[in-house]
Structure formats: C-alpha cells, structure tokens
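Weekly sync notes, structure subgroup
Attendees: PM, AL, DS (notes)

Item 1: joint prediction request from the bench team. They want all two components modeled as one assembly rather than separately. Inputs as received:
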Amino acid sequence: AQSVTQPDIHITVSEGASLELRCNYSYGATPYLFWYVQSPGQGLQLLLKYFSGDTLVQGIKGFEAEFKRSQSSFNLRKPSVHWSDAAEYFCAVGGGNFNKFYFGSGTKLNVKP
Amino acid sequence: DTAVSQTPKYLVTQMGNDKSIKCEQNLGHDTMYWYKQDSKKFLKIMFSYNNKELIINETVPNRFSPKSPDKAHLNLHINSLELGDSAVYFCASGPGQGNYGYTFGSGTRLTVV
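Output from the run, pasted for the record:
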C-alpha cells in the first residue's frame, strides 16, 4: 500500500541552525517525490521534486532533499534556517497516470529567534 | 496572474445545508483535484477530473458531488452538511503526468455549526 510517514510532528530549531525533516515512503512503483510547504492560512507551495537522475535535488528558498532508495527516504534539509521558514512541511509521493498523490501528516517547524 | 483560485475562502454554515465551492485554474492543466485537509492537517484526495472526466473517486460520502463544466473548472457541491465535514478543502491542478507537482489553491475553510 502507498503511504508516506513523517515521524516528527513538531520540530523547533534556532534561527541560523541547520534543519532536517524526515520522510519515509512506501510505493509500489517508481516513486515521484515532493516536498510542499504550507504557511498559516495558505495553500501548499511546491518546494522541490524528485523523479529521476541525481538523488540530491535543489529547491526553492535554499532547501534541498536527498532520495535514498535503499532507505525509502526523501529527507528535506536546509543549512541555515530563517524565521520565515516557520511553517508546516508536507512530503508526498505519487506517480503513474494522473498523478495521484499521497501526503504525509506534516511536520510543523517552529523557529526560535 | 496564473493560478488556481478557489471561492469562497471561508464558509460557515449550519448542519443540513447544501453548499458549493468553486475552483478555476488558468494554467492550461488537464487534471484537477479536490483534497480535504482535516483538523490534524492530514491531506486526503477526494476526487480528480481529467478533461472533464472523473478519474479518481475515493471513498467519499455521496453527499459530495464534483462537477467539471470544462477542464479549467472543478466545483464541489456538498449536500446535507454534517459537523464532520468541517475541514479545509483544497483544489489543485496538474498536467496529469507523474513527474509534475500540483499547483494548489489557497483553500476553503468550511465550518459546519
């Protein structure tokens, strides 16, 4: 069965510190993997995606993610967090025709000054 | 502006009423989706249309009826609203191919009282 697990519900980091948000997936075919960010009261914005090639992908706002097939993981990283990064982050897996996505339950990021 | 736009942004209504949420995209995408985000932020797909044809219909009460008059519009009609229908409903669109992410609307917060 297809699923996405984000084991951390809340994460708090200090501004300027590095960040890693975890994502594990289960998918029966070649996965397409995505990270979205949702600011309060807003829709979801695509941060980055992976579907083939280099397993380290760069996204917007200084984020990157690494696909590790052996671990079924697609963790999101940022070397130095800014206060404006405080938001909810969702990992998603999808693919095939018509791109049905499965989302994780989200990780809420708080940033301390 | 190119976007996915939903109306209304907020909807407060009484149990038993019938309401509709409208969605329009001007991105030229072939596929549109409705997702429901519950109070725990979990996102679950409800419906998807490709070129006005229903292609994904998850286990959703038949009080929910999507309608797509053309490929740029996907509306959601809900009959006999219940307290449990309170959620944020997101419309999204995509090109229908597996390696693209969705573009999301900003959501409609439905509160049933």
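Discussion: Chain B is about 0% helix and 55% strand.
Action: AL to compare against the crosslinking data before next sync.
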